[in-house]
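quick one
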Amino acid sequence: MTGTAERIEDLRRRHGEAVHEADQRARIKQHAKGKLTARERIALLLDEDSFVELDEFAAHRGTSYAPGEPRPYGDGVVTGHGTVDGRPVCVFAQDFTVFGGSMGEVCGEKVLKVMDLAMRIGCPVVGINDSGGARIQEGVVSLAYYAELGRRNSLASGVIPQLSLIMGPCAGGAVYSPAITDFTVMVRGTAHMFVTGPEVVRSVTGQRTGAEELGGAQINSELSGNAHHLAEDEADAIDWARTLLGFLPSNNQDSLPDYEPAGDPGRAAELDALVPDEPHEAYDMRRVLELVLDEGDFLEVQPLFGRSMLCAFGRIDGRSVGVVANQPLHNAGTIDIDASEKAARFVRFCDAFNLPLLTFADVPGYLPGLEQERRGIIRRGAKLIYAYSEATVPKVTVVVRKAYGGGYAVMGSKHLGADVNLAWPTAEIAVMGASGAVSLLHRRELAEAAANGTEEAVRAKLVEEYRSTLATPYVAAERGYVDAVIRPSATRAQLSRALRLLANKRQEVPPKKHSTMPL
Ligand code: HXC
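structure w/ hexanoyl-coenzyme A:
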C-alpha cells in the first residue's frame, strides 16, 4: 500500500469497519432488546447530517486484556458534535455492544475530550448512557475515569447545560455522573439506575427485589426524583431533550434563544373565572400556565415527583422563562420535602443560566407531620428559601390564591428579593387559613357558643370576618409587599411588561468563594 488511491481506499475500509459494520452488528443486538444503537440515538438527537464524529479509530491499548482480546474501533463509546435546531451540541453515546459500553481508559479519554471541547466552545453536552459500568479488564484505571468524569461534570455545572439520557443499565458509581448533570431522562422498561443491583442487594441485605422495582424509570421518576422525565420510548426521551435544549442558552454567558414573540394563548378571560369561590376547592395550576405562556405551551420537569409543585420551562414574548408554581390539585399545594428540593434545584438552574423566574403562588404552607419533620423538612425546606434568595435573575411573582405563613415567604416573596410582585383579587395573604386562625384567636368565644348550641353560626361569622379583613391581598398591598393587585385576565400583559422592564437587571452579590447552602 503505497499510492494515494490505496491509502484512500484503506481509509474507506477502516471507516466502514468502524462505523458501518459496527453499527450493523450493533443494530442486530440492540434492536433485539428494544433499543437503538449509539449512532441511531445520536442521529435522532442531532439535526440531520450534522453529526461530526471524533476518535472513531480509538481502541484500547490492550495492556490488561487477555491475549487475543479484540480491539474494536471506538472502544464502546461514540463521541462528537453536531447541532440541535442549528445550535452546537456535544454528545457521547455509550455503545453497549462493545464491552457492554463499559468505561475504560480510552473510552474515558474520548468522553473527557468531548466534554472539554464543550466547555471550550460553550455548548451543552448530552450523554447517552447504556453501560455495564467500570470495564472489568481495566480495574482501577476505569474507576479513575469515572472520578475524572464526575470532576468534569462538577466544573461544567452552571457553565454549560448537561443532560443525561439513560437508555440501558447505569449501575454502581456510574450513576453519579448523571446525578451531577442538570437533567436526567429515563426510558420506561429499558433504563435502570441503581448504586447496587438486585443481586448485591440480596446478598448484602437479604432483600429480594428486581431491577424495575429497585431502579426502573418509574421509580426514579416518581419516588427517588433522580429522573426529570419518564420517557415512553427512546424517541420520546430524545424529543424531550431537544425540546428542553430549545429553552436554554448554550452556556451561562450566552443570551437566551429568541423565538417569534407571537403566541398569546388568547383565552385570558378564562383566568377571571379560574379560582373557585370555595377556598378548599382545587383547580389545576397547569391551566394557569396554559393561559399565560406563549401558545399555551410549556415543558414540565419532574412532573411525577414532588407533585404539589410545578416546575416548567415556557416562554413569554418568545423568551424563555422558568416557572415555579404550587399545584392545588396535589395535597392542596403544600410544600413537602420533595417539592422543596425539586423547586430549589430548578430555581438554581434557572439562575445559573439566566432564565427569569415566574412564580405562581397558591400555598397553604409547608406540609405538617411527623414523617416530614423526621426526614428533615426544616433543613430540606430551607433549600427553597436559600435558592430564591440567592437567585439574581429577574423574579416576578403572582399570588393567585393562598399565600399562608412560610408558604407566603418562600414562594418568591418581595422579602426574598423578587422584583415585581403581583396579586390577584382572590389572593389570601395571611399567617394561616381562616379556619385555623379563628380556632386559635377565638377559642373562648367558640367554647361559649358551643355551650349554647350556636358554634356553627359564630364560627361562620368569624371566618367571614377574617377572610374579608385579613386574608386579602390588600394588607400586603398597603405595605408594598405586592406592587399591584391585578385582574387575573391581565396577567400575561403584566408579566410581559415586567420582564421587559427587568431585561437588563443587574444585581451584585457580596464576594465569596461559594455559599454554604443547607444541602
Ligand atoms: C467489561 C462488560 C461489563 C463490564 C458487561 N460487559 N459489563 N465488560 N466490563 N463492566 C460485557 C459482557 O461481558 C458481555 O460481553 C457484554 O458486555 C454484554 O453483557 P451481558 O451481561 O451479556 O448483558 P446483559 O445480560 O444485558 O446484562 C447487562 C448487565 C451485566 C446487567 C449490565 O452485563 C452486568 O451485570 N455487568 C456488570 C455490571 C457491574 O457490576 N459493573 C461494575 C459496576 S461498579 P460479551 O463479549 O459476552 O458480549 C462501577 C464502579 C464505578 O461501575 C465507580 C465510579 C466511581
